Amino acid sequence: MKYSILGVAALLLPLSSYAQMQFSSELLLGKSQNDIYSRTEFNNNKKHYSSDLVTNSLGVRVGVQFSDYISFELSKHFHGEGKNETTINVYAPLDYPFFELGSEKRAPISSYKLPVPIELESTRLGIKAQTRLFDTVSVNMRLGIAHWSYQASTPARLTFPRAGYDMKKSGNDVFYSVGLEHQITENWYVGFEYSLMKINESDEYVEIDGIPRTYQHDVKDAAFILGWQF
User: Fold this and answer.
1) Burial, 148: exposed, middle or buried (Cβ in 10 Å; 0-12, 13-18, 19+)?
2) Which residue in 42, 62, 69, 209 is deepest, having the highest Cβ count within 10 Å?
3) Hey, what domains does the chain have and what are their CATH numbers?
């Protein structure tokens, strides 16, 4: 899907020859709020994990403005690495599962913390609609498709730490945003943007263990924008 997004962007570039269009490039610096929820079910037992972490975010974006109101954009976003942590319980005998079986309850003989870094990137293709409030101030909305990818573990590992086979998973979801821009010179502008992307995944590795795992990862980005029009 990532290469499909890049291919669509390349196909649309020749449209610039049919009209006097403006191009833009932007740098986005801000914070990502990562709302993560993970659940694993095993023998009618459920293990849950949730967190709300803030990470540093970075993005770059290029766009083609077709009219005073509509632009086509392609961007790359680095949402940072969340320092999540889960607890591992050790039972006797050692092959006992990491959470309780059925109605039987056994106290672990020891516990330790396992760091689970969650690092996420996304490539986004979308449409920007904008309108001017004043001569130098405009508001905008964006809507499009994001191809996201985890650079290490997914949130599924927070409730099933042995699941190392979920590494570097990717997928596609819708994103949308609202923003404000201020033109400071003929070519330079600054702005602010708030965006949201929701990831909902469900996995069951039947060939390995058949244990169903689900997770949700809501990424809320607040970013300052430095842009250049040419």
Assistant:
1) buried
2) 42
3) 2-12+20-32+52-82+120-201+211-229 (2.40.160.20)
Phi first, then psi: what are they for 67, rounded to 5°?
A: -150, -175
pLDDT tens digits along 10-33: 555 555 444 568 999 999 999 999
If one counts every other C-beta atom within 10 angstroms of the C-beta of residue 85, the result is: 12
Distance, CA of 144 to CA of 200 (rounded, Å): 17
Question: Virtual CA dihedral for 98, 104, 110, 112, nearest 10 degrees?
Answer: 40
Phi-psi region of 43 (alpha: psi -120 to 50; beta: other; left: phi over 0): left
User: DSSP 3-state assignment of 3?
Assistant: helix
